[in-house]
Each structure stands twice: as C-alpha cells, then as structure tokens.
Specification:
Elements (H helix, E strand, L loop, with lengths): L1 E2 L12 H8 L4 E2 L1 E7 L2 E7 L2 E6 L2 E8 L3 H8 L2 E6 L5 H8 L12 E3 L5 E3 L4 E13 L2 E13 L6 E3 L2 E3 L11
Parallel strand pairs: 1-10
Antiparallel strand pairs: 2-12, 3-4, 3-7, 5-6, 6-11, 7-10, 8-9, 10-11, 12-13
Amino acid sequence: MTHAYSVRPGVVWMDGERYRRLLRDHPAGVVIVSFQHGGRPHGFTATSFTSLSLDPPLAAVAVREGSASSKALAAAPSFAVNFLAAGQERLARTFASSVTDRFSPPTLARRLANGDPVILGTRGWLSCATHDRIAVGDHLLVIGVTLDGEQNDLRPLLYGGRRYQTMAPLDPGPAG
C-alpha cells in the first residue's frame, strides 16, 4: 500500500469540522461500492467516488481507514461501483448502516463473473480490478482499472446539504 503525505513543513491546514461544514452543501453522486471478501458479498454507501483517468480507465473511491469496509476492501482484488438512482434513498441508508447482511432482501443483486455483486435497479455500474491502495489522511483511497459497466437513463441520486436529492436539467434541450 502506498502512503501519500506531501504537506510542506509550516503549512497549516483548516480544522476538520470547518472543512466538513464548507463541503456539506456540495452535492455528490451516491454510489454503493460492492465486492466479495471471505466468500461473502460486502458493500457500503459512498459519495467519495471519482474518475481519475481515461487511458487507462481508472476510477477511485475513498473509505474511512480502520472501518470494517476499508479492511475488507483493502483485501479485495476487485470491486464494483453501483450508481444509485433517484428514489433509492432506502438502499443508500441500508448500505450506510451497521446492518450485517446488507444484501439480504429486499436488496436484489447479481454476481459478475469475478464474483463481485452488482445491485439490480440502479442507474448503472462499473466493474473494477483493484490497481492500487493508498493511505491518504484518515482514508484509504482504492484505485481500480475499469473492466466493464452498464448505464441507463435514470436520474442520479445525490447527497448534499445533509439530505438526499436529485438533479433537474436547467435547459430541457439536447446537451451540447
């Protein structure tokens, strides 16, 4: 695992609570990161997902270091990112909770060829082979090479301002 700390000596950063307040109202897409570990499906809700590169196609997700999810994900050779759709708040809450078996009904999932679960009814998913794991501050950044994926036209589920929401186009015309 790589460690990334490059703050110059003498640089003073803002405290965590102020940082959290500043970012609280910035909406982010809600995903469920799912993977197989110990022969069982695992998953957690995240808003800390991003694309990193087109060539090669890299994606990353951050998870709090020391959590059960970070330990299991750190050991997983692959993972899936499930993009939640508007109306899937209950699913987001389930995977953000301490429920032991998050994949029990009513959650519906299928297994990819590599064993990773993808959740049915979401707006899409990516399948990633783990490329690198980097300890960054109090989080583990897991970078994956994207192998496959699907998408549909459902509206995305967003989280911002301490609530779930979705987006509406400002201009109903075709995207430019």
